[in-house]
Amino acid sequence: MILEVADWALVALAVIVAAGALVQGTVGLGLGLLAAPVAALLVPDLVPALLLWLGVVMAASTLVVERRGVHWGGLAWALPPRVAGTALGVWLLSHLDHGDIGVAVAVMVLVGIPADHSARWSSRSPRDAAPRGLRVQVTGTTTSISGPPLAVLLPAPTTPQWSSPPSRCTSSSAAR
What we know:
This protein is mainly α. The chain has helices spanning 7-27, 31-42, 49-65, 72-95, 98-119, 126-143. It contains six helices and no strands.
């Protein structure tokens, strides 16, 4: 046993994290989406910290591998709201008790999915995307689920680098 967690639970968590990383590397999100519910059931004390750290590793790895594809201009206006959203999400986590976090996660997921979907059809200017990025990062930090891909919030594709796979533009990757 590690961390007072049964070996079978750690193996199950490792398998789902690997599957989530594979999905995220392919389509742009999936690590937290797949692993957060399983981690919350098997090792609730590690949520959301474990998945946030795994997301940092995934984002850093993506940045290193695909550094030539980074749209630095988009990053310049997309990153500040993300940093603020992370700080607000961490503050929420530190001020809510365990039961309230579960309710907050459920509300954020249920409200966030329609909001993310509507963002795909609205204006994609930096002025409009910054508040969306803040909201997405707050919910991503508190739920460990992340999303939508930052590419959804960016201006319409104008160059080949914008039309790359969504995995190159994930919201969990600050470099995208």
